[in-house]
């Protein structure tokens, strides 16, 4: 059985404490998907020039945010690591001639554990975290994800964690989605559903409202999409599973790639 890959928006860290439509969706998603042997997460909050792979036996929980309620800093997600999966990932990167490095002792950042503690609250599935590189071209990011497509046949769930519209300077207090954010997400959706890579790879030139949706200082949140897509390069199907907004334009979306 081949497991799909996912792009999952991690929104605000406060999702870890919230009970809303999106958190309930993530809880149900974890129950509905085939139970993976392990999970590999490309996180927007690990942006490195050199492709990095976590190799720990056990994962710590990073509280890589500030100004939140004390309860946020008490949360832990003690999922085991998987040196075996990390080794397999390294083999695939080597086969793709991708320079990479191993990292130990870092722990899971909130881009990984906030969504995983909703999807898999018992923290029993091994997790390997992977970095992204916002300086690479979208085609390169997609190609890195494609190097790992065999893992889907090995019951490894590959997740890109970020946010398609993620501009903290544009956040408001309204519950009504901003039109520009919806238009941007709809443009992306049309390209994803048609697997129109040429246009997606030039999203920064062609997408409406792209400067608001993907600001120059926030590109790392958009690009996990390409890593997750690449992981389904052998089964080019995209399906939007969820779409909503917080604070007017913080996009909460989930896309499934492959079958």
Elements, N to C (H/E): EHEEHHEHEHEHHHHHHEE
Number of strands: 8
Strand line-up in the sheet with most strands? 5-2-6-1-8-7
Uncertain segments: none
* Oligomer classification: single chain
Rounded Rg: 17 Å
Tell me about the biggest sheet?
Answer: 6 strands, mixed
Explain how this protein is built.
By secondary structure, the chain is an alpha/beta fold. The chain has 11 helices and 8 strands. The chain has helices at residues 21-32, 70-74, 83-95, 110-119, 138-146, 179-193, 197-200, 203-206, 210-213, 219-222, 224-230, and strands spanning 5-9, 38-47, 51-54, 100-103, 127-132, 156-162, 238-246, 250-257. The strands form 2 sheets. A 6-stranded mixed beta sheet has the order 5-2-6-1-8-7, with helices on both faces. A two-stranded parallel ribbon has the order 3-4. Helix 5 packs across helix 11 (224-230). The N and C termini lie close together (9 Å). 45% of the residues are buried. The model has no long low-confidence stretch (mean pLDDT 97).
């Amino acid at each position: 059985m081949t497991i799909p890959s996912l792009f999952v928006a991690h929104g605000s860290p406060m999702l870890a404490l919230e009970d809303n439509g999106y958190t309930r969706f993530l809880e149900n998603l974890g129950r509905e998907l085939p139970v993976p042997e392990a999970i590999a997460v490309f996180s927007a909050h690990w942006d490195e020039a050199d492709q990095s792979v976590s190799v720990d036996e056990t994962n710590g929980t990073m509280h890589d945010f500030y100004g939140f309620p004390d309860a946020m800093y008490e949360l832990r997600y003690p999922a085991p690591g998987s040196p075996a999966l990390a080794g397999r990932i390294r083999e695939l990167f080597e086969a793709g001639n991708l320079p990479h490095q191993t990292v130990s002792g870092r722990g899971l950042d909130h881009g990984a554990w906030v969504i995983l503690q909703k999807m898999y609250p018992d923290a029993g599935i091994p997790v390997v975290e992977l970095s992204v590189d916002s300086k690479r071209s979208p085609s390169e990011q997609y190609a890195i994800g494609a190097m790992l497509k065999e893992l889907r046949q090995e019951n490894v769930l590959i997740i890109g964690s970020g946010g398609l519209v993620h501009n903290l300077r544009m956040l408001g207090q309204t519950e009504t989605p901003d039109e520009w954010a919806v238009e941007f997400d709809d443009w992306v959706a049309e390209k994803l559903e048609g697997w129109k890579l040429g246009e997606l790879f030039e999203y920064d030139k062609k997408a409406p409202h792209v400067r608001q949706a993907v600001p120059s200082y926030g590109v790392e949140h958009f690009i996990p999409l390409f890593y997750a897509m690449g992981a389904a390069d052998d089964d080019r199907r995209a399906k939007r599973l969820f779409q909503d907004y917080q604070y007017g334009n913080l996009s909460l979306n989930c896309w499934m790639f492959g079958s």
